[in-house]
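To assess whether the prediction recovers the assembly geometry, we first specified each molecular entity separately, as shown.
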Amino acid sequence: MPPRTNHSDLVVTLVALAILFTSLIPTSALAEAPTSSTALPSWNDGPAKQAITDFVKSTTDPSSPNFVPPEARIATFDQDGTLWVEHPIYSQVVYCLDRVPAVVKAKPELANVEPFKTVLSGDRGAIAKLSTPDLEKILFATLTGMTVGTFEAEAKKWTDEAKDGRWKRPYTELTYQPMQEVLSYLRANGFKTYIVTGGGQDFVRVYSERVYGIPPEQVVGTAGGTTYSYDTEGKPILTKDPKLLLNDNDAGKPEGIHLMIGRRPYASFGNSSGDQQMLEYTGAGEGARLSMLVLHDDATRE
Amino acid sequence: MPPRTNHSDLVVTLVALAILFTSLIPTSALAEAPTSSTALPSWNDGPAKQAITDFVKSTTDPSSPNFVPPEARIATFDQDGTLWVEHPIYSQVVYCLDRVPAVVKAKPELANVEPFKTVLSGDRGAIAKLSTPDLEKILFATLTGMTVGTFEAEAKKWTDEAKDGRWKRPYTELTYQPMQEVLSYLRANGFKTYIVTGGGQDFVRVYSERVYGIPPEQVVGTAGGTTYSYDTEGKPILTKDPKLLLNDNDAGKPEGIHLMIGRRPYASFGNSSGDQQMLEYTGAGEGARLSMLVLHDDATRE
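The predicted structure of the complete assembly is given in tokenized form:
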């Protein structure tokens, strides 16, 4: 690991953030966060909360040496494990597994081919042991080959209906209330909030506005190419290709931020080693920057 | 060419748009466009202007069947020949040619290698005859290999100082007043305006906010990859790679729009065959859509 940069005025990396109330509530119940001392109500008073409110004061007060003009206020958030649950497996992987029967129905010859055969068996133990190359086969088969419109409709239907096995609630309700408060608090202070996720960009865009108040164009994720062509009626279509353009993990996060946003964030939030480079890149900028590692998805607090 | 789709309520493709006053004025002199009948003051009354104002009324009136919620109001604009001049050669190509001496200074062995030798000769006739592969060599040599920060500084310096040979004014002042008015008018009506250019994404982002009021994250352009690493002091850097991720021309425009924005535009403006697919893709959406081909860069009106 390279030496950690520390020339910024405010780079705070906090591990095991002390959040007591990681209650999971529907986002529709969230009101706009206030800008005053009542911000972040579900956070304990402590260094983590203080770091966030200090950062916001420092970057939004016009008399502050660290003042950031509104148009440059960019904040990026990892999703899985940072904004919503990631255990026992990524929600998008559940989506892909759930799609396998439909894929096999369209291509019956796959029924006796691995890894599809294992997925169809319903044997959870065997499914959990699938190798990475096998999982990639499932991802390509369920996330590519269809038009962009067809994919959006399928993914929307799933996110509307599917429920997490533990909580018996839609995945889109399993977001972390304290982080929803951070999103709202930063937006109320002029920050443009982005998701920067290792998950599929097209997948997360389906629900990002409804669940996080983040529009599709502010979702950066692992992205494949598309091909523009015409359907049999001459109507333009975009088809999702099994070709990876951006692997938005690790070093791919700052690379993706440059590609899709073109500015270095002033604040970044992540929860795992896959976010390290994004947090470093954010922290290495001039002036006040906030790089936060939030660990709140342990079994006890979930 | 595939059959033109025509199921939208309002798809207007106007060739040879009747604009009398394509005066070139500094954008700093532009005020926010009004939303009323005083919109688009430098446009002649006629079908082109009418199509734009009808489209805006139809999509922003809550009682209209074609009402579009504010968050979905996306409008995309080609740049070269649509928003600013493109003759006799693209401004970015001038930038690349102007950078050649600095590249050769850093790598003296290139002085006697083509196409660099021809560029250094200053022989305009010979430079104008360079082949596409030769031009690509110049583009890769001048647009890649440096950090993102170094490139931004070099491009900013050039756009601040370089002047067009015909008008003796900075390139960034050679924008089309009628199109600046369209940008302002759409923004005043809740549209998010994007540049979707065959030009380099990183290049256009350097001046887009100052020149068009369009922030860097709303510029989609031809884009190369970057590599995240650390400099000798351990500071994170992003280096521009000679690897093409998105060729944002022709079919690449709707593909780029999907990658970078993730929503189909409601309005698109272009001026050449390289914009055809973007205009088709926009026009093929549901409800009211505006696809406009503007031809205003002929010698007489420039």
